[in-house]
Write a structure and sequence with these properties.
Blueprint (H helix, E strand, L loop, with lengths): L1 H32 L4 H7 L1 H20 L1 H8 L4 H37 L7 H18 L1 H4 L1 H16 L4 H22 L6 H24 L6
Helix pairs in contact: 1-3, 1-4, 1-10, 2-5, 3-5, 4-5, 5-6, 5-8, 8-9, 9-10
Length: 224
């Protein structure tokens, strides 16, 4: 029983850590990477960019580890789906790690750009655009439509079948994941016309994970 309580609490903490780190990382990185003169901005704000990369790393590591504490509990109900959930969340973490290295590669590139006198239409801008584009695709699309979604659907389905958490919470999670998939697919094919709509599509799973995290920390799994 104590092991189940600890697993539930650790899972909840990892949910909160991954989400919190993602928010902090975005607050550090996005204003700089979305600026027209982002290479000059990165060079002038290297500490902020490196902190953003650090929190991005924390997000990737915490997100990948979410299913590991609850794997022994999930496998009692479906070992194959529990293992699949672990695998896909680890894949998600590996994809996010690529984003960490892309952001870190921008720092020496930006310094070289400034040292060269900030030349217009140079190889610095071309390489920088490739790195930023890779980070954006890594951040917004690939995990949402592939690794995260499949892994999350697997453990939410186990939750629904086993009633380890209340079914309303499981159904909410499944719907939230599917809405996130829809948003990711829209991003791949041109994006959502209004940013507010995109945020609304991602909001249900964001809120659900925070509610689930608090539930697991306070209530734990219903082992009965």
């Amino acid at each position: 029983m104590n092991s189940e309580i600890n697993a539930a609490r650790m899972t909840g903490i990892l949910f909160i850590a991954a989400t919190g780190a993602a928010i902090v990382s975005g607050a550090f990185l996005l204003p700089i990477l979305e600026a027209p003169d982002y290479l000059a901005q990165i060079s002038a704000n290297q500490t902020q960019v490196m902190l953003g990369a650090l929190f991005y790393f924390i997000m990737a590591a915490a997100g990948a580890a979410i299913v590991i504490p609850m794997y022994p509990i999930l496998k009692k109900h479906s070992e194959s789906m529990a293992l699949g959930a672990v695998g896909f969340r680890l894949i998600e973490g590996a994809i996010f790690m690529v984003g960490v290295f892309l952001v870190m590669a921008l720092v020496p590139l930006s310094q070289g750009f400034v040292d060269a006198g900030s030349p217009a239409d140079s190889a610095f801008q071309t390489i920088g655009a490739i790195l930023v584009s890779g980070y954006t695709i890594d951040h917004a699309v690939v995990p949402a439509v592939f690794a995260f979604s499949i892994g999350a659907l697997m453990y939410y389905f186990i939750f629904y079948q086993s009633k380890l958490v209340p079914r309303w919470l499981s159904v909410w999670g499944i719907i939230g994941v599917l809405l996130g998939v829809a948003n990711g697919l829209l991003d791949m094919f041109g994006g959502v016309p209004f940013e507010a709509i995109s945020m609304l599509l991602d909001l249900p799973i964001f809120v659900n994970e925070m509610v689930l995290a608090v539930w697991l920390i306070v209530k734990g799994f219903d082992s009965s």
